[in-house]
């Protein structure tokens, strides 16, 4: 009888169970679901925010076309553009949030408030849905997973505006600082400027992404993972150059900015940090940015909101409770 | 200047962004986190529940060693055994829940109650943790992801006990029915018995796993996914044979049961459905079993619990509310 039966495949022999297929099951599930990533760019106008985002995703994912101008909004506005990207069968729904008007006025007091409000509104929407009795199977994730903060290439130090904004943003979102238009700085100037900014960040207690080891609460982080993060931290802030123009160099085409004295290649790691930023943001840490937004920033928001409510709910006055509930949600 | 710089690797050329690396990021994250799967076995004693589980995972993951006997508990008990498995670097923390005493008495009224309570207790623990202000980053998942229900190989139809139990279990957990010790049935008997059981299940409105298309609420399900489920449904209930004894056949070793008239090979798809059950449970649908427990059964439980509370919370009597809250959680 055994001769008539088909022989099992080699891997089915003896002790193979099939636990390793779980990786493939997880991969297929993620493929079916697709990914969504929400990126915010904050910085004064003219620092190349749109160009950098378009260079990162090699598509036009910003509000305006190059060269197009629009009147300056009187306060900071928050605007989104969404795009669906697909590479190798992996679907990414990308939302880029721009903040026109930020820092562009004579008096920039509180110009960060619309930005912080927007970020917290997304947490609030998520929390409201999560707490519903009849909630959605997959809550749409509009939470901002990463905020690229553009520092002007002055070569001096962080401005008071930068400090005030960063101190507020780092509490609510993963902030990745970048030095914009870094081709205006020589390599020496760039190194000194980076050191100065790192000192400024540390002096003002500003925690950028990736967080240092002691802040990482996730017990699942392995040593390799933490070492990778430490390596990225050494390179912060990324000194970047963006460009969507292709140039011919012998044997290939590159994205770059050609001047009479030479060609700055965007993706050349010895010219600027663009490739390091792109690798971190897309190729190594995108999933971690999404997870840490949910596990660190959203949980902080949720804890604060619910702690603020709890004493009142247990308190004496039922009417007060209701009012607080409705105004906070 | 360009000549001096290292050439980018081919894949970095031109328009490659790196979105497809998200799959690898998800895979690495799942590897770091590991998987946990909770399996429950329900059925009268002597149907080979422990043997089947040990055959499935090719390890000893049950409470007792073969041949060991213990006194019959006076009511149904619920007991767990946990094991850590590792294959190809993928870690699986497996918990097998056994229900000794189920259906073994003269009067089996309510013998399913400890089982349903246990399943709901796990949902309740999860809900309590999920609603805490200061909740755990990763809530330990003790929810039962799959319940293998063992039908005796009588060749007749479902007993009233089977019907009563299955009607209650299918509301709270993914139930996969199996015909135990299927080597006692000829192929013809097996086919007729399967048809009869499918008719019984349908007559009593019992919904086993995988659910038919109209019950699948997940909008992310693709056609292929639903077709795979339909194919599995055609084969239900799985007629299985378990064995942890290796036998020599020409050229290889197989798990099986040797009798004087022949050798039943456990993993031979033309001898019995063990390999189909193993493939579904471990190699294709384990992730789906975990997800549908969270998305279908846990959400049902949560909705019922929270709906039951809501009117009382808005009601007049504050003291009543507190009492109900504490007794329900």
Describe the protein in words:
Two copies of one chain form a homodimer. Chain A is an alpha/beta fold and 329 residues long. Chain A has one domain (34-328): P-loop containing nucleotide triphosphate hydrolases (Rossmann fold, 3-Layer(aba) Sandwich), CATH 3.40.50. Chain A is built from nine helices and nine strands. In chain A, strands 2-3-1-4-5-6 form a six-stranded mixed sheet, sandwiched between helices. Chain A has a three-stranded antiparallel sheet with strand order 7-8-9, with no helix packed on it. In chain A, helix 7 packs across helix 8 and helix 8 (286-314) runs antiparallel to helix 9 (318-328). The termini of chain A are far apart.
Oligomer: homodimer
What gap, in angstroms, lies between the N and C termini of chain A? 70 Å
Major sheet description of chain A: 6 strands, mixed
* Highest-level CATH class of chain A: Alpha Beta
| Count of β-strands of chain A | 9
Biggest interface reads: A-B, 83 and 82 residues
């Amino acid at each position: 009888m055994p001769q008539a039966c088909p022989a099992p495949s080699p891997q089915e022999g003896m002790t193979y169970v099939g636990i390793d297929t779980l990786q493939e099951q997880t991969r297929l599930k993620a493929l079916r679901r697709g990914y969504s990533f929400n990126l915010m760019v904050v910085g004064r106008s003219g620092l190349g925010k749109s160009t950098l985002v378009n260079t990162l995703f090699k598509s036009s994912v910003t509000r305006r076309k190059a060269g197009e101008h629009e009147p300056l909004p009187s306060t900071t506005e928050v605007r989104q553009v969404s795009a669906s990207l697909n590479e190798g069968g992996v679907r990414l729904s990308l939302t880029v949030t721009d903040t026109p008007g930020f820092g562009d006025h004579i008096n920039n007091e509180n110009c960060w408030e619309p930005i912080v409000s927007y970020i917290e509104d997304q947490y609030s929407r998520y929390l409201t849905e999560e707490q519903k009795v009849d909630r959605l199977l997959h809550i749409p994730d509009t939470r901002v997973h990463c905020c690229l903060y553009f520092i002007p290439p002055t070569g001096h130090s962080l401005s008071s505006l930068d400090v005030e904004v960063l101190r507020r943003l780092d509490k609510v979102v993963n902030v990745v600082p970048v030095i914009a238009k870094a081709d205006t700085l020589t390599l020496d100037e760039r190194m000194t400027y980076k050191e100065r900014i790192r000192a400024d960040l540390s002096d003002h207690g500003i925690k950028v992404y990736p967080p240092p080891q002691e802040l990482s609460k996730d017990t699942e982080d392995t040593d390799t993972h933490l070492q990778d993060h430490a390596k990225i931290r050494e390179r912060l802030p990324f000194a970047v150059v963006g460009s969507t123009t292709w140039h011919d160099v012998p044997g290939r085409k590159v994205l770059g900015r050609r001047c009479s004295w030479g060609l700055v290649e965007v993706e050349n790691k010895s010219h600027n940090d663009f490739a390091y930023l792109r690798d971190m943001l897309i190729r190594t840490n995108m999933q971690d940015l999404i997870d840490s937004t949910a596990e660190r920033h959203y949980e902080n928001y949720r804890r604060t909101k619910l702690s603020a409510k709890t004493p009142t709910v247990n308190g004496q006055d039922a009417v007060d409770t209701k009012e607080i509930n409705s105004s906070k949600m």
